[in-house]
């Protein structure tokens, strides 16, 4: 199930990311840097453990998890969240919960393209990636 997501994914296009960061409560200066950064996401699988590493000039984050098992995550903007990742119908669904809030990150692969849809309340952001070498 998760094998389709394995690979190196380079950000090509982003829509509404500043509004999404604003909804998260990210400060102005960090939003400016975040909006200009073009991260690479590396997804790997070893046994039943998935590693999702996001690399940019701004910050590198890495999480390791098993599908369907809740885990603690510190996000790129330093939120401490409870996360749960599942794969359903070809979509990798990542739910983060903190302080009574919830955001959903949905990844979908279509050939050499990955679309990440970020949702927080009524704010929706889409980020399009292409598969690297």
Automatic annotation (TrEMBL):
<dbReference type="InterPro" id="IPR000566">
    <property type="entry name" value="Lipocln_cytosolic_FA-bd_dom"/>
</dbReference>
<dbReference type="GO" id="GO:0008289">
    <property type="term" value="F:lipid binding"/>
</dbReference>
<feature type="domain" description="Cytosolic fatty-acid binding proteins">
    <location>
        <begin position="7"/>
        <end position="24"/>
    </location>
</feature>
<dbReference type="Pfam" id="PF00061">
    <property type="entry name" value="Lipocalin"/>
</dbReference>
<comment type="similarity">
    <text>Belongs to the calycin superfamily. Fatty-acid binding protein (FABP) family.</text>
</comment>
<dbReference type="GO" id="GO:0043009">
    <property type="term" value="P:chordate embryonic development"/>
</dbReference>
<dbReference type="InterPro" id="IPR000463">
    <property type="entry name" value="Fatty_acid-bd"/>
</dbReference>
<dbReference type="InterPro" id="IPR031259">
    <property type="entry name" value="ILBP"/>
</dbReference>
<protein>
    <submittedName>
        <fullName>Fatty acid binding protein 3, muscle and heart</fullName>
    </submittedName>
</protein>
<dbReference type="InterPro" id="IPR012674">
    <property type="entry name" value="Calycin"/>
</dbReference>
<dbReference type="GO" id="GO:0001947">
    <property type="term" value="P:heart looping"/>
</dbReference>
<keyword id="KW-0813">Transport</keyword>
């Amino acid at each position: 199930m998760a094998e389709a997501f394995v690979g190196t994914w380079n950000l090509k296009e982003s829509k509404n990311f500043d509004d999404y960061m604003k909804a998260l409560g990210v400060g102005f200066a960090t939003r400016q840097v975040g909006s200009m950064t073009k991260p690479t996401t590396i997804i790997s699988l070893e046994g039943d453990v998935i590693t999702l590493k996001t690399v940019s000039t701004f910050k590198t984050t890495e999480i390791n998890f098993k599908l369907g098992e809740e885990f603690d995550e510190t996000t790129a903007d330093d939120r401490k969240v409870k996360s749960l990742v599942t794969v359903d119908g070809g979509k990798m669904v990542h739910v983060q919960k903190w302080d009574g809030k919830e955001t959903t990150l949905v990844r979908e692969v279509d050939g050499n393209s990955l679309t990440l849809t970020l949702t927080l309340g009524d704010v929706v952001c889409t980020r399009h990636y292409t598969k690297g070498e």
